[in-house]
Amino acid sequence: MLPGMAAITPLEIVKRTPKTNCGECGFATCLAFGAAVATQGVDVGRCPYLDRQGLTLDTPAQGAAADRDWALVERLQRKVADLDFAALAPKLGLALLGDQALQGRYLGQEAIIGVKEVRLNGRAPEDPRDCILLYNYLAFGGGAPPSGAWIGMESMPNSISKVKTLASYCEEPLARLFDTHDQPKIERVIALLDGRPTAGEGADLACILPVLPRLPVKLVFWRAEREQGVTVFDARVKILFDDTATDFLDIESLVFCAERLAERIAELLGARGQE
Ligand code: SF4
Prior knowledge:
- The protein is α+β, with helices and mostly antiparallel strands.
- It has helices spanning 10-15, 30-40, 60-80, 85-92, 128-140, 160-179, 183-192, 251-270; strands at residues 95-96, 101-106, 109-114, 118-120, 150-151, 196-197, 205-212, 215-222, 225-227, 230-233, 236-242.
- The protein has 3 domains: 10-58, 3-methyladenine DNA Glycosylase II, Chain A, domain 3, CATH 1.10.15.40; 64-140, no CATH class; 150-270, TATA-Binding Protein (2-Layer Sandwich).
- The protein has a 5-stranded antiparallel sheet with strand order 5-11-8-7-6. A 4-stranded antiparallel sheet has the order 1-2-3-4, with helices on one face. Strands 9-10 form a two-stranded antiparallel ribbon.
- Strand 6 (196-197) and strand 7 form a beta hairpin.
- The longest helix has 21 residues, at 60-80.
- Mean pLDDT is 88; it is low at 1-6.
């Protein structure tokens, strides 16, 4: 933030939301979201309805979080610079591009991961967390192709706290979001993210989404059931991972993958032109 520039307040963020308390950002109310943006540096992109015109995202918390994240990107760049990209490519499902870059799909975008920069659909990512995830994917070194056996995060070791985070920031917001959109529109967005339908044991939607080439996620959605205007069954989303997922990323990064997936779905469902 420039000296003398006033920090943005929670209310200034709230004013830019539709104030519907829809919960798609992972917070129960728009005010809670506004407070989290202003004081904790939470990404404003979590609200797909927020009016970003003229918004300067340089709260102290936002600035500090972004600085920390970009510093981590630089550390990861130094870490991957010594890797043998030609040997890594097949183990990560990526294509070799020159000596020190790999290319492949990431959340429906064309990603180029080089030792000096990342490009998504030809552009530098605005969010450092995308770079962190992609460099971590390289640093892990890859492994065998996905087995096709799906497990919940609760089946992974030392994941108790992460299960709640996954529910709060991915499964619950997605359930509320999907429940307010019709099926064809959701399916169009899933296709934009390279997703494909799969068997869903009685679910209203089940699909496999390749967050990264060797890191597919299975998403299963059940719509809310209502009788005479009363909800008898809340909408629900369950995220499953291939049982090889921890060969490719640590649990924290896997939660972030699911979070980023939820944000991309929210962006695309909220985007004009997707109607
Ligand atoms: S997604 Fe936006 S509109 Fe919905 S609760 Fe969060 S801040 Fe409010």
